[in-house]
């Protein structure tokens, strides 16, 4: 065997050995990340939220009316606002589902529990939730942009369109929580005791 042939023959053997080495060498054991516990007391960024900033987030409204802001709104103004700010997605009357491809329920329909599609009128147990939801989440493309008066007005319009309040009702913090939604009776308080209480 001359030198050249020996070199050519040894090549595949070398390659085989190399691949075996890679296959059988144990992967480097990963050490868990250790917390050095030498953290600084402050990281040097951020600042305490101001009372005003907290107030801007602290806007939840309860079914008993707690949290409802000052202001008032009526059906007529609500209708105009609805057409300006909501109809492009929810349809001119709110009877359609938002958009064609967007998820969501129709806003207006009859208030029978058995009826479809689900609407505020046949599915939502509290009028205050409607106020709370629209104030924080709608219009979908500009949430938080409605003034409290506007939310009261649109709430009035939608409750009237669902035949829950009369057209001349002016809604405010004193009467919105008193509006009884047709679906309220479908919800039962979970008052089970003894065991995990899931509310
Ligand atoms: C850009 C489109 C768009 C606009 C504009 C818009 N919405 Fe919506 N709306 C949606 C979508 C999408 C949903 C469903 C959201 C979800 O289920 O998470 C929705 C859901 C709702 C719901 C809940 C319906 C239900 O029964 O689940 C209400 C109420 C509502 N919108 C009111 C309004 C009001 C009032 C306005 C105008 C101030 C408005 N929306 C403007 C897209 C829009």
UniProtKB/TrEMBL annotation:
Keyword Transport in annotation: no
InterPro entries tied to this protein: Cyt_c-like_dom, Cyt_c-like_dom_sf, Cytochrome_c-type_DH
SUPFAM superfamilies xrefs: Cytochrome c
Keyword Iron in record: yes
Record key words, sorted: Heme, Iron, Metal-binding, Signal
PROSITE patterns, A to Z: CYTC
Signal sequence region: 1-23
One Pfam family hit: Cytochrom_C
Domain Cytochrome c: 73-162
Protein name (record): C-type cytochrome
Record lineage: Bacteria, Pseudomonadati, Bacteroidota, Sphingobacteriia, Sphingobacteriales
């Amino acid at each position: 065997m001359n030198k050249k042939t020996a070199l050519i023959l040894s090549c595949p053997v070398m390659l085989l050995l190399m691949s075996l080495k890679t296959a059988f060498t144990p992967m480097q054991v990963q050490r868990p990340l250790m917390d050095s516990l030498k953290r600084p007391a402050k990281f040097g960024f951020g600042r305490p939220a101001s009372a005003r900033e907290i107030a801007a987030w602290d806007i939840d409204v309860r079914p008993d009316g707690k949290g409802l802001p000052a202001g008032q709104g009526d059906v007529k103004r609500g209708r105009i606002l609805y057409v300006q700010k909501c109809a492009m997605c929810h349809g001119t009357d709110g009877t359609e589902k938002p958009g064609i491809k967007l998820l969501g329920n129709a806003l207006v329909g009859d208030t029978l529990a058995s009826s479809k599609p689900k609407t505020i009128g046949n599915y939502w147990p509290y009028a205050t939730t409607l106020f709370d939801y629209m104030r924080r989440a709608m219009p979908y493309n500009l949430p938080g942009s409605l003034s409290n008066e506007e939310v009261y007005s649109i709430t009035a319009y939608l409750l009237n369109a669902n035949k829950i309040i009369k057209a001349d009702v002016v809604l405010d913090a004193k009467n919105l929580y008193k509006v009884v939604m047709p679906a309220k009776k479908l919800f039962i308080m979970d008052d089970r005791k003894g065991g995990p209480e899931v509310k």
